[in-house]
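Problem: given the chain below (383 residues), write out its structure.
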Amino acid sequence: MRARHPRSAPRTKRAIAVTCLVGLVLLLLSMPSSSAPGDPIPGEQDLPQTRISGGGEGVVTTSQGAVVPRSRMYITMGGDSPVWGLLYNGLYNWPIEDPSTFAALCSRGRPCVPDPFYQPACATDDLSTQKRGSFFRSLIYPVGRVDGGVDVGLVGRVPVRLVAFGSLPATATLTMRSAREGGKVTPLLAQIWSTSSAATIGCDPEFDAPALTALIEGRIDISLSDLEVDGVPVDLGPHCRTVRSTELRLWGETDRGAYSPNSGGPLGAYDGLHPGSLGPLDSPVYVESRGRTIPASTGVDVPPFTGCGTGGDDLSPLVTAMASGPNNPVRAVQKPVVSHEVAPGEPFPREVLRDISACSPFGGQCPLPGPDAPDRPPLPDDD
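Solution.
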């Protein structure tokens, strides 16, 4: 009678193999998702997914000072805590019917636009008598720095000092974010008019007016938190914010230097800085702004607050009295762009999004430190 060989050893080997395979699968599943090169980066989904500009892309930092006369606040951001932005310099603007490239207008047969702000007295409806030049646009997405990515839309989160009930000292945290529309972050739109060419000077060669006009516009949502009045915490809840977005309109301060999205420069929003447009914009190169009249410069209006308070206490009127009000003057200065190489048709470089504070490989440009805070902007006449 033939003795049977024991089968325990092969079963043990198969059991060990299965156990190792299960362990390997569990190990792979437990690995951090950031290890995969194709995984999304924080904030990446809130940025354009294709190349939209032909003038270059990069990181900019901006310092600013804003006065809120009603609450005697002066809010500054600069140096080591500037406003960060991702710049898409020179939006595609040619051909007009279906823009797919960027080219400087007013050259090589491309159309000029009349200067919408300054014209000599001798100018008529005849374009040859009008001062003309180029017009182009850029986008700036405000961003905050987060671990491994960006918080798209964050303009700033800063501590502020206020006055409550007319005399009591108060402190709070002020958060500013770009408004969202249809679930998407609305960037800042930088618009540049350049009329420096001698060929488009118009009927009066001696007419003296700025050769470059810059206007940056955007919509900002403002919220308040961490309020303390005379040292006593006041719970505002998580939804204390302005009832609508604040309209931001910053003009280039030509008497302090020229501004362009690429080279930066001084900006401001206060009475008397700029006269606004002479009439409606009428060229097709203005795209969706065609037919619009741009008002004269003034300070930023901060709307009333809503949603402030918890437990049935409506503290919105208190916050409105402290922080809201019209014509709050602002001054800002942007540093030159820190350029990064972008492949044609590609979105913003992922390695830059992972660390927007990195210096550029081109010429060693660095976003930090940010520009020095500008001088305090001039107050309205009645303050």
